[in-house]
Design goal:
The structure holds two protein chains of two kinds. In chain A, 35% of the residues lie in helices and 24% in strands. By secondary structure, chain A is an alpha/beta fold. The longest helix of chain A has 17 residues. Chain B has one domain: ABC transporter involved in vitamin B12 uptake, BtuC (Orthogonal Bundle), CATH 1.10.3470. Chain B is built from 16 helices and two strands. In chain B, α4 runs antiparallel to α14 and α14 packs antiparallel against α15. Classes of the chains: A alpha/beta, B mainly alpha. At the A-B interface, α9, α10, α13 and α14 of A face α10, α11 and α16 of B.
Chain lengths: 508, 367
């Protein structure tokens, strides 16, 4: 039997008006990958913070090691964004954590050491480049390596908090490979993620939390996607059915020869009432397309027309005036003013209709409108005056989307709309997107999550090397096919998959 | 979240229905109203008023004869009007995210320019006043252009502008005081209307205008949004460059006006007076942001803080404290203010008072 690294018993943590953790018990053994899942507000992050010592629990115990004379394992926490200093290189970030060579700058040795560590996980990149220039997967690996560096024994605990939120297909694989290696060496890994397929894929055991209580502690091979959702939400969720588009629709947004950032050249046409997905690996252009169309990123080439009239490049104000709406991928940096209230954020892009004489805002009319939107997007808690930063990620995103829906946009461009959002809120966001399309908006959704695109979109554009290389719709729109197109796997294989999908359809 | 409409609610396990997530203790309804009042009255929200009470009590006991005299208070209100006016201008700038370090030099330049217009140019008072305020607007415009189009960080841009202005002050005045200002002009700074001098009334009028713009208009929303998160504001269609430039121009006009009033009050165009306003204005604006509006820069809090600090300084002076006390007091107040604001941001949800209220409520529920 492997050694026990961590035992948590009867943990309780109270916040004003809320019991965040209630009698939470579990254990972690060496060599094991434990996934913790749950909706936002289920107590996941509170649990991590209690383990990290940020919060003190009101009751219960966290015991490291097996007690007695055995070595006490260390616990290392890796958070996706805060782990590293972006201006410093991999080498410098690694040496920050260690006590080695503090006096003399043994640069060459440090560099070799860094390359070795990175290499031992089967990766190779320039370790002297600043962290901010690395891909998110590489960054996460550096964070993991930094935690591992300086462990005297492999039997320690690694806590990964949402490490894959920014990662895409292949990159997730890279990280998982690293995590498995770490576990195989004898470490215990706690892995927290919203992406349930990943959880099943990577972990040995799943601990599901709901309302601060453990509602399931099961081996991963015994559960599938649906079972997990049922555990987390407490009921099963019916997935959304898309009806096929009938007839020709009005052309809303068209781009010709669009280029800039990671997009080399893209032509696309969005019609009223359709939901178009954009898929692709990181760096394929997928992450820049929506921003380029809207003007959030600098357009270097090409024409964008909205309802036939050309749109000025790089001018969000003009885009808003042309009834475009854009939900950026990074909610905190670009999506909303976090220290302003829900109300102020909701009306920010469209204060015009509320303006009265002397520039005065009609605050009563504003509040009425805001309450309506709070109601229709199901914001929790439904408080218009509450600062946005105090809401959970999913609820923040609802506000960001609602502020655009309020303006009844002709085209709605969403960049990673469900990033860092829990399962329940994800579904309400899908519903909002659906409704917008039903009311006649042309919707563009870019996402790293192929499953999401298949579920939500009418057709999906696949990008590779800055260009749109494929378009999948109808029966061809299928997760595996998407991934193959993204990777540019050989055409025959792709056709093969396509045939299989068609065959299945015929059989059904 | 739990209660959105889902097409199929198949099986609902034995677990209780999904709870309302994280309702804060202060909801709506009777209990909520009490909590809201308590929250407004909390030290966190109106600390300056409590501090003022302490200052008032201490000095009323320590130096009752002088501190409680009516003339002391009138003199203090009159003398702080210009500081308050400068701070109001600064609120406008910092709310849009532009940390205007040129504010002291702007006051100094306004003070010299109006004196120069009146004496060397022989301009009539309204013309001199208009020219000075216009110059203030242009200075703000320049700072704004440097920040938005040259993309220089606001600290550095305004620091540079400040240095250029100090040079201009020196050049215009030849490092000499400008004397022989007309009696009529001096009336602007020293003449009384009802119980206060004109600068107090002008400060109040400008304060109301800036308050109205920031709190009641869409322009104000755009200013706060730009200051809060410039990228998010830009993506929401706010013309952030224009917002920053106009905020700084407005700030420049107000500070130039403050310079005019200053010259009129001391009856001299003094080339050295401006920079002394930098620190008090920033202190007031930052400390003011901890009042009333949960960390947001605001006019009311700023003006309140100017006077609370002045009362403290006055008390120390009357009690015979040395001359360096005002600087010390302002400096310590600024540091405390910013530390307090940080602390407040960290604990806004877990404040002891709210926690106490939350506890009380839950225990009621359990009993």
């Amino acid at each position: 039997m492997s050694t026990r690294l961590l035992q948590v018993t009867g943990l309780r943590k109270d916040f004003p008006g809320l019991r965040a953790l209630d009698d939470v018990s579990f254990e972690l053994r060496s060599g094991e990958v434990l996934a913790i899942v749950g909706q936002n507000g289920s107590g996941k992050s509170t649990l991590v913070k209690v383990l990290a010592g940020v919060y003190r629990a009101e009751a219960g115990q966290v015991a490291l090691g097996e007690g007695g004379d055995s070595a006490v394992p260390e616990m290392h926490f890796i958070h996706q964004t805060r782990a590293l200093i972006p201006e410093l290189s991999t080498v410098e970030n690694l040496s920050l954590g260690s006590s080695r060579s503090r006096l003399r700058l043994a640069r060459r040795r440090e560099r070799r050491h860094a390359e070795q560590m990175i290499g031992s996980f089967g990766l190779s990149f320039d370790v002297t480049r600043p962290i901010r220039e690395l891909s998110p997967a590489e960054r996460t690996v550096v964070a993991v390596v930094r935690a591992l560096d300086g462990w005297s024994s492999p039997e320690n605990i690694l806590v990964l908090d949402e490490p894959t939120a920014e990662l895409h297909g292949e990159e997730v694989g890279k990280l998982f490979h690293v995590v498995r290696q770490v576990a195989a060496a004898g470490a215990g890994v706690i892995f927290i993620s919203h992406r349930l397929d990943e959880v099943i894929d990577l972990s040995d055991r799943v601990l599901a939390l709901r309302d601060g209580r453990v509602v399931g502690d099961v081996p991963s091979h015994e559960c599938d996607h649906d079972r997990l959702i049922q555990l987390i939400v407490g009921r099963s969720i019916g997935s959304i059915e898309r009806t096929a588009l009938a007839g020709e629709r009005e052309l809303v947004l068209a781009a010709e020869g669009l280029g800039g950032d990671t997009v080399a050249r893209a032509d696309l046409r969005l019609h009223a009432g359709e939901i178009v997905g954009v898929s692709g690996l990181l760096g394929s252009g997928r992450e820049s397309l929506a921003g380029l169309l809207f003007g959030a990123r600098r357009r270097e080439r090409g024409e964008v027309t909205v309802l036939g009239s050309p749109l000025a490049a790089g001018d969000p104000a003009a885009a808003v005036a042309a009834q475009l709406a854009y939900v950026p991928p990074d909610r905190h940096a670009d999506g909303a003013v976090m220290e302003m209230s829900v109300r102020e954020n909701l009306t920010l892009p469209g204060l015009g209709p509320l303006r009265r004489a002397l520039g005065r805002l009609d605050r009563r009319a504003e509040l009425g409108e805001v309450r309506q939107w709070i109601d229709s997007v199901g914001l929790r808690p439904p408080e218009p005056g509450r600062r946005l930063e105090l809401f959970s990620g999913g609820n923040q995103q609802k506000v960001v989307i609602a502020k655009w829906l309020r303006l009844r946009p002709r085209a709605l461009l969403l960049d990673e709309p469900t990033q860092g959002v829990d399962v329940g809120a994800k579904l309400s966001i899908y519903e909002l997107i659906e409704n917008a399309a039903r009311e006649g908006a042309a919707v563009l959704v870019t996402s790293a999550d192929a499953k999401e695109l298949v579920e939500v979109c009418d057709r999906v554009l696949v990008m590779r090397d800055g260009e749109i290389v494929a378009e999948l719709a109808g029966g061809a729109l299928e997760e595996e096919r998407l991934l193959r197109e993204e990777l540019g796997l050989d055409a025959q294989q792709a056709v093969h998959v396509f045939d299989e999908a068609e065959e299945e359809e015929i059989r059904a | 979240m739990p209660d959105q409409a889902t097409p199929s609610l198949t099986e609902l396990p034995a677990a209780p229905p999904p709870p309302a997530p994280q309702t804060p203790p202060a909801g709506e309804g009777e209990g909520g109203r009490l909590a809201a009042v308590l929250r407004w009255l909390s030290f966190r929200n109106i600390s300056a008023i409590y501090i003022f009470a302490v200052i008032f009590v201490v000095f009323s006991i320590w130096v009752p004869d002088t501190f409680l005299a009516e003339s002391t208070w009138r003199a203090m209100i009159d003398s702080q009007a210009i500081t308050a006016l400068v701070a109001i201008g600064l609120v406008l700038a910092v709310s849009s995210g532009a940390f205007n370090l040129a504010i002291g030099a702007e006051v100094g330049f306004g003070a010299i320019l109006v004196a120069w217009c009146l004496t060397k140019l022989g301009a009539p008072i309204p013309v001199a006043l208009a020219l000075t305020v216009l110059a203030g607007a242009l200075i703000g415009l320049l700072s704004g252009l440097l920040i938005t189009f040259a993309r220089i960080d606001s600290f550095i841009a305004t620091l540079g502008v400040s240095s250029v202005l100090l040079a201009a002050i020196s050049w215009v005045s030849g490092d000499q005081q400008i004397l022989n200002l007309s009696h009529t002009f001096q009336q602007l700074g020293t003449g009384e209307f009802l119980i206060f001098t004109w600068p107090v009334w002008i400060m109040i009028a400008v304060g109301i205008v800036v308050w109205y713009v920031l709190e009641r208009t869409s322009a104000g929303r755009h200013i706060y949004a730009t200051g809060g998160n410039i990228d998010a504001a830009r993506l929401a269609g706010v013309k952030t460059r224009r917002v920053i430039i106009l905020s700084l121009a407005g700030c420049g006009m107000i500070t130039a006006l403050a310079g005019v009033l200053l010259t009129s009050t001391i009856a001299t165009g003094d080339p050295t007076v401006g920079p002394a306003y930098l620190l008090p204005a920033f202190t007031a604006v930052f400390l003011g942001s901890t009042q009333f509006r949960e960390g947001r820069f605001n006019v009311l809090g700023t003006v309140l803080v100017v006077y609370v600090l002045a009362a403290g300084v006055k008390g120390f002076q009357l009690a015979g404290a040395p001359t360096w006390i005002p600087d010390l007091f302002n400096g310590v107040a600024l540091l405390t203010a910013v530390a307090l604001a940080k602390f407040q941001a960290r604990t806004s949800e877990t404040h002891w008072l709210l926690r106490l209220l939350g506890r009380g409520k839950r225990e009621e529920g359990h009993d």
